Amino acid sequence: MLDFAALGQERSVAEPISPFHDLVETIRELREHRDPAPLFGRLDAELLSGEYHFTSSEATLTFMSRCIENACFADPGRCTLYSIFRRLSLLEPHLDHYHKLTHVARSIYIIGTPDVTIERWANNVHIKTQGAEQLARNWVTINTSRDIHMTLLAEELPPEGKHPRYIGFYTDSRALTRRVLRQLVEMRIIGQPDLFTEEQLELATPPS
Questions:
Q1: How far apart are the C-alpha atoms of 205 and 157, rounded to whole Å?
Q2: Nearest C-alpha neighbor of 153 from the set 165, 142, 145, 164
Q3: Where are the beta strands (DSSP E) in 22-72?
Q4: How many CB atoms are located within 10 Å of the residue 111 CB?
Q5: What is the pTM of this model?
Q6: Which CATH architecture has domain 18-193?
């Protein structure tokens, strides 16, 4: 079993902390408390909406990342998918699947450190490399539409031998998904999501 407290100390001494480290730690803390009520006073209320699951299993993270991607098929033409790879070369084994997603997604944003060149293959595909080095220790998959709000957010840990290690969570929380998106906007990794802009316009439009 991973000693999460020791990992946190190890990371603080030896490794730079990822931009989402505090959020991952907060979700870990919620998961470890059988009665999280004492934590509520210092937590944002939005963290308590929806469900979230914390894991250190790479197999679980891989499975849930694919589930989040495939939610595009359940809401064709409406989903915006954000996929953050530590390096763009990690996308290459999944390119065939992403080509299929192109036909059902509203937009796909692929973000990663450019260790290889991947050409944009469709008008609704956007490949972002500027600022991606800030996320070189994160694994993020987000799918959002009017009805879908799904996020996987993981942080890479120092490896044991040749095997990478991660801790992170996946969630269907609308508030938590939007919190992650807002942080990506603030980091200038992505622009304002079209869905956010559309909702703001709808709220500003007086009823007819």
A1: 47
A2: 142
A3: 52-55
A4: 23
A5: 0.83
A6: 2-Layer Sandwich (3.30)
